[in-house]
Structures are given as C-alpha cells and as structure tokens.
Amino acid sequence: xxxxxxxxxxxxxxxxxxxxxxxxxxxxxxxxxxxxxxxxxxxxxxxxxxxxxxxxxxxxxxxxxxxxxxxxxxxxxxxxxxxxxxxxxxxxxxxxxxxxxxxxxxxxxxxxxxxxxxxxxxxxxxxxxxxxxxxxxxxxxxxxxxxxxxxxxxxxxxxxxxxxxxxxxxxxxxxxxxxxxxxxxxxxxxxxxxxxxxxxxxxxxxxxxxxxxxxxxxxxxxxxxxxxxxxxxxxxxxxxxxxxxxxxxxxxxxxxxxxxxxxxxxxxxxxxxxxxxxxxxxxxxxxxxxxxxxxxxxxxxxxxxxxxxxxxxxxxxxxxxxxxxxxxxxxxxxxxxxxxxxxxxxxxxxxxxxxxxxxxxxxxxxxxxxxxxxxxxxxxxxxxxxxxxxxxxxxxxxxxxxxxxxxxxxxxxxxxxxxxxxxxxxxxxxxxxxxxxxxxxxxxxxxxxxxxxxxxxxxxxxxxxxxxxxxxxxxxxxxxxxxxx
Length: 485
Prior knowledge:
Layout: H1 2-14, H2 28-38, H3 42-53, H4 61-74, E1 76-79, E2 82-85, E3 94-103, E4 106-107, E5 113-119, E6 123-127, E7 143-146, E8 151-154, E9 164-168, E10 174-178, H5 182-201, H6 203-206, H7 213-216, H8 227-271, H9 275-280, H10 293-300, H11 306-318, H12 332-343, H13 358-370, H14 382-389, H15 394-406, H16 410-428, H17 430-433, H18 437-448, H19 458-474, H20 476-480
Antiparallel strand pairs: 1-2, 3-4, 3-5, 3-10, 5-6, 6-7, 8-9, 9-10
Helix pairs in contact: 11-13, 11-16, 12-13, 13-18, 14-15, 18-19
C-alpha cells in the first residue's frame, strides 16, 4: 500500500494542473485569480492589475472614452502607477533652415542658419552640428523651443522663401523654419503641430485640470506632481488668459481713453474765453496782414493804412532808382520777419540795417495787398472795370474809369490814389530802374484786383487786370486830379 501511494503521487506530480473551464465557474474572484496565475508576461500582469484597480462600473462614462482616445493617440503606458507618455511622432533629426526673428516679444534681425533639428514630445531642439545631439558637453544645445502653448502657421509675409512656417511660443519668441522640399516642410509642420497639440493637452505639463482627476486620481502616486509641473502651470494659465482676454481688455481701455478725451475737449470748449476777453487781456492782437481794409483803417483812425504809408515813404526815399523795383523779389524769410513785427504792433523803423534791402520792403507791400480779404479793387467792381476798359474811345474810357473810382469806399479810393501817385514817381526814374508802365501793370494787376469767383478764363482775367492797372497809371493825373509838376 505504501508503494502504491508513492507511485500515485509521482504520477500526479507529472500530470499538468487541472483548470476549471470558465463556464463552470460560479465565483468571479476565482476566475480573476486563475487568470492572474496563468499570466506569464509582466506586461499582461500589469494589464490585469490595472483592470482590477479601475473597474468600469466605478468611473463616469465621459472620462473613460476621453482617456481611451488619449491612450490610443498618445500611446499611454502605466508603469508603477504613473502615466508615462511616449513621444507622439517618431521623427528623425534633419537639417532645416532656421531664423529667430523675435525673443520674448523683442524683434531681432532675421538671420537664416542651417541647423540640425530634433523634435521631442514637447520641445524642438536646434543644434549647429549633428554631432552635438549626442554630445554631453554643457551648452551644446544652441536653442530650445518649448512647444507647450505655442502657435504654428504657414507664412508668406515674413520671408520671400518658399515652404516657410512660423512657430510662436507662449513667451513671445518667434521662429521661422524652411526647407526647399515641400514634402519635408509639410512633414515637419504636421509633426510639430501634433506635438504642440499633445503638449498643450497633456495634464501633467499643462495644468491640474479637474476633468482628469476622476480617471487618474485612483492611480497610486499620481497626486504628487513634480515641482517643475507646479511651476510651469501658472505660466501656462497666464498665457491662456493673455490670449483669451487681451482683445477685451484692449477694447475696454480704448473706449475709456476715448471717453476721457471727449470729456476733456467738452470742458475745454465750454471754458474757452471769448475773443473779446482775449483781446482785452492782450493775448490776441488784431493783425495788419490779412485784415480787411475798412476794418484796419477804422482801427487806426486813417483812410490809408499806416504800413502802406511807411513802405511808400521808404521806397520814395531810397528805392526809386533801384534796378527792377517792385519786379525783383526780396528775401522771403526777411519779408516774413517784417510781417511778424507789423502784426505784433511793434515799432517799425525801415531805416534799420536789417531792412536795408529795398526789395524786402516792396515785397512786404505787395504781400499786404495780396492778403487782403477783399482786394483794393472790390469784388463787385471787377466786372465793371473790365467793361470800362473795353471802351475804345479814350475820353469815354477815362470818364468811365474815373466814375467807378469815385464810387469806391474812401479807404480804397485814398489808398489807390496814394499808390498810383507813387508809381508815377517810379516811372520818372524808368531809365535807372528799368521799369515801364507795362511792367508795373504786370506786377500790380493780379496784386490789386481779382474776381471773387474764378469762373472765367484765368488768362483772360489776367490780361484785363494788367490793362486796367496800366490804363489807370497812364491816366492817373486825369483820374485822380493830381497836380502836374
């Protein structure tokens, strides 16, 4: 009997263990235990333990489907209770043309460099040489582009080269990447775009998003985030807030600034003093140049502007024999200086050395007549003088012109009489100053009269302007009853 039991035990040890078929098992825990025992590989045991810890009935449906989608896209492996994300795209290093055009928002000069480029799950590395990729020397990396929160887009405005795309990091740095091969450029663009998307969506690197907590909160060790992750998260959140609310803040500040400017302008307009008050305080003075002739004479209490009288006296004193008097132009800067002094109602002495050029005086006098709001020959008399000068008979023409001049306002008539009597004295020195009646008519025709509306032919009007001044100058003794000397 003892021999028989020993034989049976040996034969039993040689036989394989009996496994109960699944359909005969009534205890689920025994089935799970049997599956674990029959697993031979560490990967299968890890998968079985994962299924035992995370029961499908204990988890919400939406995070499960999202986690499965992420797992299928990002090749998620669970080892030791921690989620490990493998690189999204397996892309070998390759030489690309790289240009850094901005760093932290500050523009830089574009300089293309042929760089060895390597793409990881969340970084883009650039090396000057390919051998630096495996070098362990510090500082071998020339540039590191963080893809988390970055933007990538094709561009044709930043460079004239073809196949150029731009990467903008969340810190404001901008990179241009280019290669002559369109397929290579598209391959790198797609790979980097997927890496940007994945690095932005990954919870350990982006933020402590609550949507992932129900799924991974039960995994051992998941709750202890790395210090680097905690430090990066506020930066990422700030960058997201910057992109999402910058337009809103900008528009709000703009509207506030506009409202502030409008309010200040309204207050300024309502508190602005009147012209009378400013004149009484001496802040605004009445001008001489550009002032209406009647207004200027009333203000000065004369029938001839004082400035006109001073200029004519200066020319009579030292300019009658000057070559090209009234025809030659003076220095414009000096003329403007003289005008400024006259408008400021300062004492004017044309005998000073700064006014020694008589052409400056004559230029200022002509400017005074040109800037009158209404010319010396008023607008309503322009066409009447044109019709009068068309008369062929000389006596009738003189009578018509003389009658029109008598109808002029007294300041216009007296100023005209003083001016033409002065021009007669200029003609007396015609051999020295080389001025003729025709030359004076050409100079003073457009200066003393012009139509209110230039509806007609300008050349025709200029001809009549010259003829009227020339005729009055020739017949001035008869028209103005001047004494013959």
